[in-house]
């Protein structure tokens, strides 16, 4: 019978991934493994580990295998219906928190797991937060997360802002699908398992970003920010689209990896 260390060593997956899967099975934290790695694994734990390791060898993302991913210090349920929350996306959350006026009406477009609006609401209970997605399967995951984390969010199915005609907001945020359809990353790693509709616009990567920029003008009060996450090489294009559309204070911010990641501007009114 193998020890925990032997299970990890023979798994043919990355050591860190193997540890994470094992700790999930035994329901322990990392410190436990340091003192117990020469313990004999039970048959049940061994079988469970072998089955999860096989899924990982087939390329399935750790977040989907575990069904959970941490974002901004909280656990979010994730399924293959939603994009896996990325640490990079904490940048748009920080920028939104710094720009949302007291008791602001905030809306997140293409919410996926709901990690952005739920974090905004929990960090700033004064905000009134709505979130939209075109995918009912994604909305089911987001609604579950909001209930589990006790965040009061108004969810609605919508193709970008089409379901909120006539409504105005004090801040609009979005992490839309922005990967160009021919980008080779789509056929590599975790992205192969994520919903393609959450990753790519099926075109040059700027289609949804442009659509949101033009629609948002009709839903922002004067002086309100629009903040958009985008790819590392899309900052200049986003700024140009924002400027052409009439936004002011247009700028781009960099993520922790020092890549352009969020651009935004202020809508001064028509
Ligand atoms: N940041 C993701 C990636 O590059 C893409 C997310 C998105 O398209 N919104 O893997």
TrEMBL record:
<dbReference type="GO" id="GO:0102559">
    <property type="term" value="F:peptide chain release factor N(5)-glutamine methyltransferase activity"/>
</dbReference>
<feature type="binding site">
    <location>
        <position position="133"/>
    </location>
    <ligand>
        <name>S-adenosyl-L-methionine</name>
    </ligand>
</feature>
<feature type="domain" description="Release factor glutamine methyltransferase N-terminal">
    <location>
        <begin position="11"/>
        <end position="67"/>
    </location>
</feature>
<feature type="binding site">
    <location>
        <position position="160"/>
    </location>
    <ligand>
        <name>S-adenosyl-L-methionine</name>
    </ligand>
</feature>
<comment type="similarity">
    <text>Belongs to the protein N5-glutamine methyltransferase family. PrmC subfamily.</text>
</comment>
<dbReference type="InterPro" id="IPR029063">
    <property type="entry name" value="SAM-dependent_MTases_sf"/>
</dbReference>
<dbReference type="InterPro" id="IPR002052">
    <property type="entry name" value="DNA_methylase_N6_adenine_CS"/>
</dbReference>
<dbReference type="InterPro" id="IPR004556">
    <property type="entry name" value="HemK-like"/>
</dbReference>
<keyword id="KW-0489">Methyltransferase</keyword>
<dbReference type="Pfam" id="PF17827">
    <property type="entry name" value="PrmC_N"/>
</dbReference>
<protein>
    <recommendedName>
        <fullName>Release factor glutamine methyltransferase</fullName>
        <ecNumber>2.1.1.297</ecNumber>
    </recommendedName>
</protein>
<feature type="binding site">
    <location>
        <begin position="110"/>
        <end position="114"/>
    </location>
    <ligand>
        <name>S-adenosyl-L-methionine</name>
    </ligand>
</feature>
<feature type="domain" description="Methyltransferase small">
    <location>
        <begin position="99"/>
        <end position="184"/>
    </location>
</feature>
<dbReference type="GO" id="GO:0032259">
    <property type="term" value="P:methylation"/>
</dbReference>
<feature type="binding site">
    <location>
        <begin position="175"/>
        <end position="178"/>
    </location>
    <ligand>
        <name>substrate</name>
    </ligand>
</feature>
<dbReference type="InterPro" id="IPR050320">
    <property type="entry name" value="N5-glutamine_MTase"/>
</dbReference>
<dbReference type="InterPro" id="IPR007848">
    <property type="entry name" value="Small_mtfrase_dom"/>
</dbReference>
<dbReference type="InterPro" id="IPR019874">
    <property type="entry name" value="RF_methyltr_PrmC"/>
</dbReference>
<feature type="binding site">
    <location>
        <position position="175"/>
    </location>
    <ligand>
        <name>S-adenosyl-L-methionine</name>
    </ligand>
</feature>
<keyword id="KW-0949">S-adenosyl-L-methionine</keyword>
<comment type="function">
    <text>Methylates the class 1 translation termination release factors RF1/PrfA and RF2/PrfB on the glutamine residue of the universally conserved GGQ motif.</text>
</comment>
<dbReference type="InterPro" id="IPR040758">
    <property type="entry name" value="PrmC_N"/>
</dbReference>
<dbReference type="Pfam" id="PF05175">
    <property type="entry name" value="MTS"/>
</dbReference>
<keyword id="KW-0808">Transferase</keyword>
């Amino acid at each position: 019978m193998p020890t925990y260390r032997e299970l990890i060593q023979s798994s043919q997956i990355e050591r860190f991934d193997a540890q994470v899967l094992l700790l999930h099975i035994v329901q322990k934290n990392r410190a436990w493994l340091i003192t117990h790695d020469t313990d004999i694994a039970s048959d049940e734990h061994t079988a469970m580990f072998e089955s999860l390791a096989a899924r990982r060898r087939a390329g399935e993302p750790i977040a989907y295998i575990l069904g959970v991913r941490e974002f901004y210090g909280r656990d979010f349920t994730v399924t293959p219906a939603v994009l896996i929350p990325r640490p990079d996306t904490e940048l748009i959350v920080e920028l939104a928190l710094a720009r949302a006026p007291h008791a602001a009406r905030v809306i997140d477009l293409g919410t996926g797991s709901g990690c952005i609006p739920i974090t905004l609401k929990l960090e700033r209970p004064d905000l009134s937060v709505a979130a939209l997605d075109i995918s009912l399967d994604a909305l089911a995951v987001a609604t579950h997360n909001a209930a589990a984390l006790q965040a009061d969010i108004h969810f609605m199915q919508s193709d970008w802002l089409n379901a909120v005609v006539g409504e105005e907001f004090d801040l609009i945020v979005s992490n839309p699908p922005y990967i160009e359809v021919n980008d080779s990353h789509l056929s590599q790693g975790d992205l192969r398992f994520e919903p393609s509709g959450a990753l790519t616009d099926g075109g040059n990567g700027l289609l949804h970003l442009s659509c949101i920029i033009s629609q948002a003008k009709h839903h922002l009060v004067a002086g309100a920010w629009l903040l958009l996450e985008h790819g590392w090489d899309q900052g200049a294009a986003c700024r140009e689209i924002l400027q052409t559309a009439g936004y002011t204070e247009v700028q781009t911010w960099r993520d922790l990896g020092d890549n352009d990641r969020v651009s935004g501007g202020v809508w001064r009114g028509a």
